Description:
The structure is a homodimer.
Chain A lengths: L7 E7 L3 H12 L3 E7 L3 H9 L5 E3 L2 H8 L4 E4 L6 H8 L8 E4 L5 H8 L8 E7 L19 E5 L6 H13 L3 E4 L2 H33 L8 H9 L4 H10 L1 H24 L2 H21 L2
Parallel strand pairs in A: 1-2, 1-4, 2-3, 4-5, 5-6, 7-8
Antiparallel strand pairs in A: 6-7
Helix pairs in contact in A: 7-8, 7-10
Amino acid sequence: MMSKKRPFRKVVIVGVGLIGGSIGMAVQKKCLADTVVGVGPKAEELKQAVERKAIDEYATDSRMIRKAVEGADLVVLAAPVAELETAARELAPALTAETVVTDVGSVKGPLVHRLEGCFSSPGRFVGGHPIAGREKSGVAAASAALFSGALCILTPTPRTAPNALETVKRFWEAIGARVVSMDPDAHDRILAAVSHLPHLVAYALVNTVLELQSRNGDLLSYSAGGFKDFTRVAASSPEMWRDICLFNRENLLAVIEAYEKTLDRLKRLMVEGNSEGLRREFERAKDVKEKLRERIP
Amino acid sequence: MMSKKRPFRKVVIVGVGLIGGSIGMAVQKKCLADTVVGVGPKAEELKQAVERKAIDEYATDSRMIRKAVEGADLVVLAAPVAELETAARELAPALTAETVVTDVGSVKGPLVHRLEGCFSSPGRFVGGHPIAGREKSGVAAASAALFSGALCILTPTPRTAPNALETVKRFWEAIGARVVSMDPDAHDRILAAVSHLPHLVAYALVNTVLELQSRNGDLLSYSAGGFKDFTRVAASSPEMWRDICLFNRENLLAVIEAYEKTLDRLKRLMVEGNSEGLRREFERAKDVKEKLRERIP
C-alpha cells in the first residue's frame, strides 16, 4: 500500500491547551505529520489531548522531553506567553540545526528577539500569532477548524532564515489560516489598538458595573445587550490578559491615552449639549462594522 | 360564529419602527386588539408596516391622527425619545379620560413627569421601557417575538392610576415580556450603568481605533474578536444614542467618572508591573458572565 509522503515527520507542540490542541487536531486531520508529540507539565491534560486525537504521544519531564523532541522538524511553542522563554531554553539543546521553531504568543516585539536568542540557530525561529480564540480554554475546547479562515501574523526579523519562514507560512496555510508577515514591533502596536485595548476596556467596564452594583443594589438583573457583549470579552483568561498587559505595556498605555482623549471629547460634547457633535461621533463609529464586513469575509 | 372578546378595541402605535412595529406584530399575533392603528410622519414606512401586518391602518397628518386615535383604549408612544413630548401633546386632545397611554423610551426620569403633564388625566400615562432591540432599525427588522422573554421596566409615579399600571403590565406580559416596576429616576441610574455607559465606551473605543488607523495605517484588517463585539454595539442608531446621552446626561457623566477611576487603577497596576493585582482584577470581571447566566435564563 502506498501512502503520500507527509510534509513533516514529527511536529512537537509545547502546551496543548485550546490553541496547541487545535493545532494538533488540525495537523492530524490534514495528515501533515507522521507523528504529533505534545509536551506540557500536566499528564492529565496531555492524556486528554491524546483522547481528542490532538497528539499521538506526550512527554512531561525534562528527560522525556529531550527524547520527544528528537527528530522533530517543527516545534510549535503554544505555552502561555510568560513561559515561552523557559520552554524555549529547555528544548533548545535537543534540536538540530534544521528544526524550525515557531510560537503562537499574543505578544511579539522584544519577546521574539529573546526567543531567537534561545537557539543556536536563531534564524530557525519564526514568531507567529494566530488571531483565533474562544472564551473557553483547555484542550477540551480545541477544534481542528479553529484556524479555518483565521488570520495568522508571522513576525520575521533580519535574522530569520527565509526557508524557515516559508515552512511556517505553509504550515499555517495548510491548516486553513491566511498568513501575513510584519515586523514584531508593528504587530504589538497594531494588536495594542485592535485587541489589547478592547479587552482592557471590557475588564474596566465590567468591574465598574460591579462596583456600582455594590453601592447601588442590583444592576446585573437589568443588563441589556451592550453590557452582555462586554462580559463575554471580559470572560477571557485572566492569566493570559495579565501577561499581555505587562508584555505589551508601553504600546497599551499609549493607546489607552488616545482612548481617554476620545472619551474626554465625548464627555465635553455631552456637557455642552452638543447634539450634532455627538451624532457625528456616533455616526462615524457606526460605519466601521460595515467596513469590517467588506474586509473580512 | 362566536369569537373571544379581545382585551383591546383599538391600540394606537405612534412611531412604527423596530420597536413599534414589533409591538404591532405581537399584538396581532396574540389577537389582543380589534384594530391596530399606526401613526407616524412617513406614509411609506406605515404602508410597509401594514404589509408586515404590524398595523391594520394608519394616519400621517394631524387631522387624520385625531380620527385614528378616537376610541383607542391603549396608545403606545414608540417615537424617538426626543419626539415623545411633541407626539403626546398632539394626541392628548383626542383621548378620552379612559385611554391608557404608555411609551417605550430608553430614558425615563424627568421625561416621564413631562409626559404625564401632557394629558388631562396624568394618571393614565405609564412610562415603560422594554429592554429589547436589535442592531437594525425600522419596521423591516421588526418581529412579533422581539419581546419574548425580554424585560420591560415600567416606571409609575405617585400620580399613576393603579388600573392604568395594571393594564400596561398585562399588555406587556401578553406579548411575552417579564415586567418589573421602579421609580423613573432609579431606571435612569441603573440604565446609565448597564446600558448607556457600555454604548458610550464602545463608541469611544471604535473612534479611537479609527483615529489611530488614520495615523498608523491599516488596523482594521487585524481586528480580532474583542474589537468586533464593540463595533456591533457601536452600530446602534446614532440619533437614538445622541438623545439618550443628552436626556440622561447627569447619570451618565457620574458612571463615566466611576469608569475612569477603574481605568486609572488598571493603568497604575500596569505601570507598577503589579502582576497579581492585574490578575485579580481580570478574575473578578470574568465571573460576571457566569453570574448573568444564572440570573437571566
